[in-house]
Specification:
alpha/beta; 9 helices; about 260 residues; single chain; Rossmann fold
Length: about 260
């Protein structure tokens, strides 16, 4: 990607990515800020090792390193196009490393080549794509990977328990109102429009030609682990002992989980 897409052009695409994401998450930047606040407050060191799970093009990773420049962030995603975009844009950040790995595949963490146990794992708007069985396996693997007392921070659309149907409806309506206030004329560009435009960029032609199965992220369809209760139960089964929401706007929340 570094040979086919300049850092400036990659930055333009990520800026456009961030903008279309705000069409679904009007408080996205505040969520980023709170999540990084939690990392900084909890880990107790200026040079933490942090995993960014389902990192996409690295928007959260870059913001984390802007706040904690001595940190090391290993950003993991299965999509080669988004990773290539992040590598091109953020090649000047020495603390950032991207890894193309499928979080649904058992043992993915062994391929990271980590020299010590991570202090924290973070994720934003990614883990709800996983089927519940894959989510449970992921959390179990994380519980064995993070250091004692390590933290997981998951910012995502996580709805109230299925039995609380009126609360789920209320959360969704709060989210819709926030989006309408931020974008009264509708989304400037939705997720599908961004992907269609991105993959049509001539600068990506050589990279696209080398992909056997195309972009995995571009084919996402549906949200399989959208209930907060599914995440809480999976985290508890994995061995996390303190689990709670530390920030929320409608159904957009940061779920935090601590190891003993």
């Amino acid at each position: 990607m570094a040979q086919t897409l300049s850092p400036d052009r990659a930055h333009e695409w990520i800026t456009r990515w961030d903008r279309q994401q705000e069409g679904y998450l009007p408080d996205r930047e505040e969520r980023f800020t709170v999540l990084i606040d939690a990392v900084e407050a909890h880990v107790g060191r200026a040079d933490p090792l942090v995993l960014d799970l389902g990192c996409g093009p690295g928007s959260l990773s870059a913001r984390l390193l802007d706040r904690l420049p001595r940190a090391t962030v290993v950003a993991v995603d299965a999509d080669p196009l988004l990773l290539a975009l992040g590598r091109a844009c953020y090649s000047s950040l020495p603390g950032l490393r991207f890894a193309e790995l499928d979080l649904r595949r058992p043992g993915w963490s062994r391929e990271l080549g980590l020299e010590r146990a991570p202090d924290a794992a973070v994720s934003t708007t990614a883990l709800h794509w996983l089927a519940e069985r894959d989510l449970r396996a992921l959390y179990a693997e994380l519980a064995g990977l993070l250091r004692p007392g390590g933290i997981l921070l998951n910012g995502d659309h996580l709805e109230a328990d299925g039995s609380a149907s009126r609360l789920r409806g209320l959360e969704r309506e709060i989210a819709r109102k926030a989006i309408r206030r931020r974008f009264p004329d509708g989304h400037p560009e939705d997720w599908r429009q961004w992907w269609d435009a991105f993959t049509a960029d001539p600068a990506l032609a050589s990279l696209m030609a080398g992909l056997e199965n195309g972009s995995s992220a571009a084919s996402h369809d549906g949200s399989e682990s959208i209930l907060m209760s599914a995440h809480v139960e999976a985290l508890r089964e994995a061995g996390f002992t303190e689990i709670d929401t530390i920030w929320q706007r409608g159904d957009d929340r940061i779920l935090a989980a601590l190891l003993p």
